[in-house]
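Is this the right way to post structure tokens for a design question? Let me know if I should format differently. Anyway, here goes:
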């Protein structure tokens, strides 16, 4: 087991100075902004950003197309539903007209029969009056 050794002020100051020197050396070793490797990394990052923006734009365009297609499908469904409702109303109106016509036809037939019976009765009355004279 290592023994604890107490450091004096000069030793601590030396350690701190060496640490500062190491940090400065590390920073000095970093490539500058005009280094080809730095430029290449920046271009790679720009390419990644542009690709990301293109994907975002493509997703937005696809979402817009889907929204437009959905709206068109809803409009087509609404038009189809309205056309069906109109066809049902027209069919109901035609059936009602047919029932009405049949009813009026029956009424007309009854009226015609009544008129025919009345004409026969009137003819009988007129014939009887002629015989009485």
């Amino acid at each position: 087991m290592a023994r604890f050794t107490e450091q004096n002020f000069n030793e601590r100051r030396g350690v701190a100075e060496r640490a500062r020197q190491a940090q400065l050396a590390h920073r000095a070793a970093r490539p500058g902004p005009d280094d080809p490797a730095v430029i290449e990394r920046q271009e790679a990052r720009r390419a990644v950003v542009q690709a990301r923006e293109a994907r975002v734009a493509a997703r937005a365009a696809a979402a817009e197309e889907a929204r437009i297609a959905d709206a068109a499908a809803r409009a087509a469904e609404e038009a189809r539903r309205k056309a069906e409702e109109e066809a049902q109303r027209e069919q109901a109106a035609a059936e009602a007209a047919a029932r009405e016509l049949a009813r009026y036809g029956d009424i007309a037939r009854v009226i015609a029969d009544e008129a025919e019976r009345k004409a026969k009765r009137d003819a009988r009355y007129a014939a009887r009056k002629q015989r009485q004279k």
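Format looks fine. Someone answered above. Worth noting: The longest helix spans residues 36-132. Residues 27 and 112 are 118 Å apart (CA to CA).
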